[in-house]
Write a structure and sequence with these properties.
The structure is a single chain. With 175 residues, the chain is mainly α. It contains eight helices and two strands; from the N terminus they run E-E-H-H-H-H-H-H-H-H. The protein is elongated, with a radius of gyration of 22 Å. The chain starts with 12 loop residues before the first strand and ends with a helix.
Amino acid sequence: MTHGFRTDTHDPYLDGGHDWRDLATRYALLPLRIFLGVTFIYASLDKLTDSSFLKDSGSGSIGDMMRAVRDSSAIPSLVDTALDNPVAFGYAIAFGELAVGIGTLLGLFARLAALGGALISLSLWLTVSWAADPYYYGNDLAYLMAWLPLVLAGAPYLSLDAMLRARKRQRAGYQ
């Protein structure tokens, strides 16, 4: 076995023996988690507090918005399903966004929350922003892509998931 040694003349470690690059890599997804969590909570609260959004019809209503995008969506039948009860669909989206945002911010069931965020973004891309031309003008596709790293990695640091894993390992006698 060969052992290498460092010839640096300075101490590359900042905190607890971790190089700054190691720390940056470890926490690389944290800004994305914060951004998506806050954004989805804000979007949820915006919908829930907008007096015109959660209505079947009228200016700014979920019903009128869904009727306006129906013919240009990738999956009109998905819009038709939402139009069966647009107010219930609006509440489902709003509470779904709230659950996803809270789960993402706290890192609780982080992969599941990210999957929920990805599915919400996918459904909005296939319905509301599908007709955006060119495609990159529709922000729902970018949100969908932003959720995928969190689906894959979860929230391994600074999260309730990490705290629960550590507690479980401690109880099992592992360090």
